[in-house]
Design brief:
By secondary structure, this protein is an alpha+beta fold. It has 29 helices and 31 strands. Strands 1, 2, 3, 4, 21, 22, 29, 30 and 31 form a 9-stranded antiparallel beta sheet that branches. A 6-stranded antiparallel beta sheet has the order 14-13-18-19-17-20, covered by helices on one side. It has a 4-stranded antiparallel beta sheet with strand order 6-15-5-16. Strand 24 and strand 25 form a beta hairpin. The longest helix has 36 residues.
Length: 972
């Protein structure tokens, strides 16, 4: 049976069928979206609650714990982690891959509603959630500056005119404004002045709430006209509050300005952001998990000109970080490499066949196979990303094999004197089953990739499908278009002088390959005469392959250079806001001295993204890759040398990656978690483990988020004394919150936004612990009605945690690290295990890796299984095709030698055996076994048709397809 016969006999129908494949592929190319990588992220939702003035312990017990209790009951929840710090609680919920993000969102909202009755009644706002992975770096960062307008106005316009509109763009997960200059009225009270008038902070808070209201007032309906009722019940500015009467004493009014300073200022004075070294408002835009980065950013950029027209001319909006620049550049590079690979394949064919017509045929079949694949990619919802384009690039070597085998076999009959038509019929019939065998066996190699699980499986699912579809289309083209074109083109003979030169070139080339084949034939006879030695060498290659697999350094995924570096600064745990701002500026100055740094944005303060006052964030933008000579990792090491000179603060950096598996942000790239039901043990054991890991040669920049040594003032209330004055702990807490918590006491409502009124004690009077003694409390039994806090309480300084972390509702702490230059992730993982044993970590600790390190462990356990599964699958498929138990073993016997070559190549070039390396080895298995399949097919035909002995048959089968084997190997 000849599957190609009908297509050779019907050239018009064959041509039109191929034109249809080409047409649908080109149409699909127009609609395929661009992206960095396939959609592989876990559905992730971040829940954030802000409670100004609350300590980390209060946030944990009153906000985080009730929410965790409800979230923990949700089905399909893979992992829940939380961090609680002064005034902020952030809970990250990671769901299973098969749960739609919208369904997860509904479950989260229901859980928040269920926890509502357990949350503090005076929360400024209920918990808010965003469909975003907090570990995913912003896809777009906007810097808003002005030479004339104050930052409060910039923040107000960024919030009302930019952030809200950008949030509505499809695919945007979260828009955050860093800089904290949200306009507000700040009332800074003087506790001593209040006490002199017989007033206290609680009285002031109640009064301020009553002098600014915005409540319904009703309407009335007369005989002929109707009226609504309004009043000047709202105070819209700081000037309105200054002259407000808060009490009458001795017949005279007490104005707010008599006991407090009233300013038009920022809602949170402990937040700041900079562009390079200039104060600014930073707008960070993060995408939803699964959203296409390029589509989202392009939509925002299209919207920006319209939004900028609504802003005053004095405001400058600058795109500071754009992640799509490097993504588009990398996709363009891969597209260029794809075109180059097609061109090289065509040149290889021309060199081997020395025939323009024979070269033209695969020059048509290769692009046709690749373009036809685009239509299937569009139907499957794929994108043009680095992995799908890599699949097409790799497929170039595979798809040309089928065409080469078909053309070479038909050309051989033409050279023997047959007409092109007869040669096409004979050659296609002889090689048809071989092409089908090659195709089926290649797809069998990809089966393990298609069924890989978890994130790695999702990552390479699109790659494997794309490659498999290309191989199938290639087989169809090789069985249809290629023999038809051979029947039409190969019989043409050149007649011009230039063609005569081509004939001479072809003759010389044929003679050259005949000499090579002759040399190969003599070597083959030598090998066939020494079969035991050959088998022994084959067994040794298997042993060497296993040894190399054990010894080679293991990795997870190559480090990308996206042109953006993420940094986290960390100072002493007792660092004040002003000192941290100076540290941040000093670090920025050091970073900007590097010639490859183009710009940076940074911010400090507790805002839900940054969790502690002694830490800050950097986003460092590098110059375009073509205009610098160092990689992101090399630049990090260079910047580290400069920032180490800045005293009082450390800077931890890592390159921003397109593939983000982590669900939390850490100081450095890889994360290791310690859990213990007793959090007091962290202080004893985490420093010991850190010391061991910092001495490891395979790790660098080892850091921990354990922060238990912040300074706190513990107020010990004498309940008996307080009771005699009619003072309760609630009274004390309320007074302290009024004075030191930046308490929201009222709200100013406008048509476009809402602005807070903040009450606090005058900062100039509250620099030291002694200021607590000047705080007066209302007393129902004291003759003066006021009692100083020092009369009923004592004050002691003691350490307190700045940050409390949970993983699955249990206390935890994270150790993060980067790899030392030249070190592998496998060596770092082993170093952590050794360090645990060396310090005798107590069994109460539960240790686990997170994010990329966890995925590495999972992939490491699956690597050998993946290779074995590919080999077993091929054995079964080949056994079915050949109806033999022995022939598949013969074909697969070539694999160990290929494995030795692949592993040695990785060792020589200094690369780890990572996921990409494993995929390469699996594909190498497919390439190697194709040659063996051709030899077996020709040998079986020689045995059946010509009655040759096994030795004669395999000798004949090795020499006959030697030229196409050289061609396919060179093309691959």
């Amino acid at each position: 049976m000849n599957p190609s016969r009908i297509f050779i006999l019907r050239p018009v129908g064959t041509a039109l069928l191929m034109a249809a494949i080409l047409l649908v592929g080109l149409v699909a190319l127009h609609y395929l979206p661009l992206s960095a990588l396939p959609v592989v992220e876990y559905p992730t939702i971040q829940v954030q609650t802000l409670y100004p003035g609350a300590s980390a312990e209060v946030m944990t017990s009153s906000v985080t714990a009730p929410l965790e209790r409800q979230f923990g009951e949700m089905p399909s929840l893979n992992q829940m982690s939380s961090t609680s710090s002064a005034g902020a609680s952030v809970i990250t919920l990671q769901f299973s891959l098969d749960l739609p993000l919208d369904v997860a969102e509904q479950e989260v909202q229901a859980a928040i509603n269920a926890a509502g009755n357990l949350l503090p009644s005076d929360l400024p706002a209920p918990p808010i959630y965003a469909k975003v992975n907090p570990a995913d770096a912003p896809i777009l960062t906007l810097a808003i500056t002005s030479k004339t307008l104050p930052l409060t106005q910039l923040e107000d316009m960024a919030d009302t005119r930019l952030a809200q509109k950008i949030s509505q763009v499809a695919g945007v997960g979260l828009v955050t404004i860093s800089g904290g200059q949200r306009p507000a009225v700040r009332i800074q009270a003087n506790p001593q002045a209040l006490a002199a008038y017989g007033l206290n902070l609680d009285d002031l808070r109640t009064t301020i709430g009553n002098i600014n209201v915005n409540t319904p007032k009703g309407s009335f309906d007369g005989p002929s006209r109707a009226y609504t009722i309004n009043a000047n019940d709202q105070l819209q500015s700081a000037d309105g509050y200054t002259g407000a009467v808060i009490a009458y004493k001795n017949g005279h009014p007490v104005l707010l300005s008599d006991v407090a300073k009233v300013t038009q200022s920022a809602e949170n004075s402990k937040l700041g952001a900079w562009v390079n070294k200039t104060p600014a408002i930073i707008v960070n835009i993060q995408r939803q998990p699964g959203a296409n980065v390029i589509n989202v950013v392009d939509s925002i950029k299209k919207l920006l000109p319209e939004l900028q027209t609504s802003l005053p001319a004095a405001i400058d909006v600058q795109i500071l970080t754009d992640r799509t620049v490097t993504i588009k550049a990398s996709v363009r590079d891969v597209q260029f490499e794809l075109a180059v690979s097609v061109l090289l394949v065509v040149l290889v064919i021309f060199v081997f066949l020395s025939n323009i017509y024979a070269t033209l045929i695969p020059s048509l079949s290769v692009p046709l196979s690749l373009i036809g694949t685009l239509a299937v990619m569009y139907l499957c919802g794929f994108s043009l990303d680095n992995l799908s384009l890599m699949a097409l690039t790799i497929a170039t070597g595979f798809v040309v094999d089928d065409a080469i085998v078909m053309i070479e076999n038909i050309a051989r009959y033409v050279e023997m004197g047959d007409s092109a038509f007869d040669a096409a019929l004979k050659g296609s019939k002889q090689i048809g089953f071989t092409i089908i065998s090659l195709t089926v066996s290649l797809i069998a190699v990809l089966i393990p990739l298609l069924f890989m699980g978890d994130v790695v499986g999702r990552l390479f699912h699109e790659f494997a499908i794309t490659l498999a579809v290309t191989i199938v289309i290639s087989a169809v083209v090789s069985l249809t278009l290629v023999p038809m074109l051979c029947a039409k083109l190969l019989h043409h003979s050149p007649a011009t002088d230039s063609a005569g030169r081509m004939q001479r070139f072809e003759a010389h080339t044929r003679a050259f390959f005949e000499r090579i084949i002759g040399t190969y034939g003599r070597a083959l006879v030598w090998v066939l005469d020494r079969q035991p030695l050959t088998l022994l060498i084959a067994a040794l290659t298997l042993v060497v392959t296993v040894l190399l697999y054990v010894l080679i350094p293991k990795g997870f995924f190559p480090i990308q250079d996206t042109g953006v570096i993420q940094g986290i600064s960390q100072a002493a745990q007792s660092t004040s806001y002003a000192a941290m701002a100076q540290h941040q500026q000093d670090l920025a100055a050091a970073i900007l001295t590097d010639p490859d740094v183009e710009s940076l944005s940074s911010f400090i303060g507790v805002d839900g993204t940054n969790l502690t006052q002694n830490s800050g964030r950097f986003l460092i933008n590098l110059r375009p890759y073509d205009s610098r000579h160092a990689t992101a990792s090399e630049i990090i090491r260079r910047i580290q040398q400069e920032t180490n000179k800045v005293s009082g603060v450390e800077l931890f950096m890592q390159p921003v990656q397109d593939l983000t598996i982590d669900s939390t942000v850490s100081a450095t790239q890889y994360q290791f978690i310690l859990e213990d039901a007793n959090p007091t043990e962290f202080a004893a054991w985490v420093p010991k483990l850190l010391q061991k890991l910092q001495a490891s040669p395979s790790m660098a920049d080892v850091a921990s988020d354990l922060q238990q040594n912040g300074k706190s003032v513990y107020i010990n209330i004498d309940r008996s004394t307080a009771g005699r004055f009619g003072i309760t702990p609630a009274t004390v807490d309320s007074a302290l919150y009024d004075a030191f918590g930046q308490r929201i006491v009222s709200t100013i409502f406008t048509q476009s936004n809402q602005y807070r009124v903040i009450l606090e004690a005058d900062p100039l009077l509250t620099h030291t612990v002694d200021a607590l003694g000047t705080l007066y409390l209302p007393s129902s039994t004291s003759s003066g009605g006021q009692v100083p806090l020092s009369a009923i309480a004592t004050f002691t300084e003691q350490p307190a945690p700045l940050l409390i972390s949970h993983l699955g509702q249990f206390p935890s702490t994270t150790i993060s690290f980067n790899l030392a230059p030249g070190a592998s992730l496998g060596a770092a993982v082993d170093a952590i295990k050794d360090a645990e044993q060396q310090i005798n970590l107590p069994p109460s600790f539960n240790t686990r890796f997170q994010g990329a390190a966890l995925a590495f462990q999972a992939s490491l356990s699956n690597e050998l299984f993946l290779i074995l599964a590919a080999s077993v699958t091929m054995y079964i498929v080949l056994g079915v095709l050949y109806e033999s138990f022995v022939h598949p073993i013969t074909i697969l016997s070539t694999l160990p030698s290929a494995g030795v070559g692949a592993l040695l190549a990785l060792l020589i070039t200094g690369h780890d055996l990572d996921i990409i390396g494993i995929i390469g080895i699996v594909l190498l298995i497919g390439i190697v076994k194709k040659n063996a399949i051709m030899m077996i097919d020709f040998a079986l035909e020689a045995q059946r048709e010509e009655g040759k002995s096994p030795r004669e048959a395999i000798y004949h089968a090795c020499l006959l397809p030697f030229r196409p084997i050289l061609m396919t190997t060179s093309a691959a």
